[in-house]
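Hi D.,

Good news: the full-assembly prediction came through. Inputs first.
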Amino acid sequence: MGQTLAEKILARTSGRNRVAIGEIIEVTPDFSYSHDYAAWAIDAFEKMGATRVHRADRIGICFDHGIPPNSSKDANSLKRVRDFARKHGFQWFYEAGTGVAHQVMVEKGLIVPGSLTVASDSHTTSGGAVGALALAVGETEIGFLWATGKLWFRVPQTRRMTLTGAFRRGVYAKDLMLVIAKELGVLGALYEILEYGGDGAARLSVSERFTLCNMATEVGGKGGVFPYDAVTAAYMEGRAQFPFEPVVSDADAAYCGEMRFDLSTIDPMVALPGREDSGVPVNEVEGTEVQQIFIGSCTNARADDLEIAANVLRGKKVHSNIRLLVTPASRQSELDALKNGDIETLVEAGATIMPAGCGVCAGTHQGVLADGERCLSTSNRNMPGRMGNRNAEIYLCSPATAAASAITGRITDPRLV
Amino acid sequence: MIRGTAATFGDHVSADVVLPARHSFLPPEGMAENVLMDLSVEANRKVRAHSIVVAGEAFGYGTGRESPARALRAAGVKAVIAKSFSRLFFRNAINNGILVIQCSELCALPVSDGDEISVDLKAGRIEWKGRSFPFPPVSDVVGNIIGAGSLIDYGRQLLAGAS
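Then the structure:
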């Protein structure tokens, strides 16, 4: 019996030839990173009585949640992490404003194909976009990893996600993701790795793959991954900071199931407030008034996402009832969109550009909603309170749907503007 | 061997309900006062009175924060037995010294609040009302973490052994 990509990577990092599904193993990850919450990892590290950090050349920090800080308490917490990283020689430190950690670590070539990457944030799954096994852990565990170099994992099952065909005009990876969430439910892929494949997957860019791996956690998944191919190879060219060996599943590997999606049948989707698996085709909610529109987050705010939004908004104006907040996923995405004129287009239309990072999505900082307001967002989560107010509602969609709705002030099918 | 009495819950108790983010920074006593309070006052009372949680599907889904697991520990919970768990809760509970056991067979039966339950970790067996329910033996790593008290305690032991 062959092995899946996930089994192979977990076998290698646990020093074994193979591992069994359900088994708990001890591994040495290839790379780890954290963000503002590294403060709790430092607490754990110090409580363990540790003094020396393992493999500081394989540790990253990128501040993204509450940046720039809006209280002295937050500023002090970031300073503590900054000082700790400096003292222990963390090689990959990124200041506030570089972007969302998940995006930055991929963009900087620190998450490489075939690697085991871990981080203390549920959207760590994003790293699967470049063929890595990228797994989320708790904050204490990052401290334990710094102290000992090791972590434990349960070997997951893998579900094959076969994509065929191509998206029609106005339909994007986010729409597919909302269809996947609708079919699986918020826990439908519990413990599983979602492994994408098929001719439809091969055509997707790294940015689109990122969206589909990022939200694996919204269906309970342990990870999402696109096997290494020509698209990955081109993306990693001149970018990878570490030598790597691509890993793909064996042809006779065992999967726990398969789901098939014909991309040409997908419509623009909107997830209704409360749960990420509540997606409906956009026409079912067309005309719903919203007050804030957020184009941001690690899910959908890269240069290509900003370009999609700019193409919709070019020569148009944001509706007077709408606050359009744009938070690029990274400084690099922002720079690309500045150079090609997309940021100018967005600002001319009436968008507010915010510093690269998590922005409104994390709900702790900037862009908090008022009671009874509705936000249409390109981010990944919409449970009550996610954007800082339990009495506000969050709808999820693609950048195209967000931009089209910014013009009309109501949820709008992007194919109609 | 872990012995205790049961506090029973249904399906889909999210980690955000176990302990909302706003209570994440409370000291242990404060966490115990608030654990499961968003579900009901009765839920809080019973989880503090009984040390073995018995629940249904997807216990602890949602947030990956560690504070819900810390709150259960603060309330005196030693083990959670459920039909299934979200993976981040599973990790966070074990790392905070709470044994987590998946046992659909037991959780499908009418276990009542206060029922005596024992868990034999080595044998991989749960005892309830004279009946026995097997579960796969826990791995050495998990056993070591639970045995040490928590991941931090385990880390401290490892580092002390190494020096």
